[in-house]
Amino acid sequence: MHFKNYINIFKDPNFLKIFISSNLLNFAQSLVNITIIWLVYNQTNSAIFIAIAVTSMQLPGVLLAPFLGIIVDRFSTKLVASISLLTKSILFVCLGFLINSNNNVLLFLFLGINSLTGPIIDSCINVLIKELFDNEKLIITNSLMTVSFDLAYIFGTLASGLVVITGKSKITFVAIAVIFILISWILNSIRHDTISKPQISLSFTKSIQHMSTSLKFLWQQRPLFNVIIVSFLWNLLIWGSLPVILPIFSKFFKRSILIYSSFNSIQSIGIIIGSLFAGMLTVKFDKVKIIYLSIVSQSLFLMIFSLQKNALLALSLFLLAGICSAPCMIYKTTYLQECIPENRRGQVFLLNSTLSTVSYPIGNFLTALLSKKLTNHIGIILFVFSIFLIIFCIFLYYNGIKFSLSQKR
């Protein structure tokens, strides 16, 4: 791959539409997540209500979304995504009027319903990318999707600050609803050959059956199963721990607030740089090996980072860790898109999304518990987590190879 491939893919109208949709979706979602938590706290002055709000924004999706995989695999991907987006838009109009009211029950109920739509939309976008592009374009497409996520997160965070300062919450929520409607329209305007989906009857029993057969398929494809497991562990031990570790770790440096904000920014910059390089380079290694090497190299840099007392060196190592993490994000998604059969793609992506969602709060909670006893040595937690992750990577990688060799005999 060369830089001209980025120029060429932007000439594809379907890519432009899905890229713009992804940017708008990530921007709106990052704006929502931060704004709601702040507004709930501002209204209630209660940490308990923040916990309930966060739970409402995640738990229903974690518990119920995997059972909805049959819908993504049964109906048109664009149709399912559009209905989910329109549902979100209606919910956010309602949330705009509820956020400053005292009706917390309805507020948390609507947040719970909204949590069901997120994993479905994410799954639909991943499935739609595979439907639109051949294998040669998947890596560069997924690299740009990763870049868009980090850019949208940065701008969404900045925009949420403006909402908090101005107090224009109702207007903001209506604007977010309009963005979701716009995304729905853009996705529906994509033109491609309609793919015939399997005619699966819709029922709770069929949903359970579809999910169980998809899990059985993953277990029979051990390298694929192991990639999903290592992704879960990666999110838990690294991405779930960093939000707790970084604020404490930053206090050991002069100008701790500046260092903390720099850590967050430089991580996103590293991921963007790594994503662009991953999309440009032609790599002869297989995708599974790249996924594991990416995680291991990031873990090694984080181990060294966790021991640093020099701010500049710590920032440099954190940048390198961010760069190393990007290939895993890109090649993992590409590997799943290529290896999962069409009739199970939506279900498996929903299961993968659910595991990712679950891993973050577990990682937060585990790190918070450990930090109570290791506040003055917070870097040790990241150091040990990184070692564990490297061990898991080695085991799961060679377990997948061993399984593949046994299947060939």
UniProtKB/TrEMBL annotation:
The entry's cellular-component GO terms read:
plasma membrane
Tell me the ranges covered by the Major facilitator superfamily (MFS) profile domain, including all copies.
224-409
Location comes to: Cell membrane
Pfam families the UniProt entry points to: MFS_1
Gene3D superfamilies cross-referenced by the UniProt entry: MFS general substrate transporter like domains (1.20.1250.20)
- GO MF annotation terms: transmembrane transporter activity
Show the stretches that span the lipid bilayer: 20-41, 47-72, 79-99, 105-129, 141-165, 171-190, 224-245, 257-278, 290-307, 313-336, 348-371, 377-399
What's the protein here called?
A: MFS transporter
Q: Which organism is it from?
A: Ligilactobacillus salivarius
List the taxonomic lineage. Answer: Bacteria, Bacillati, Bacillota, Bacilli, Lactobacillales
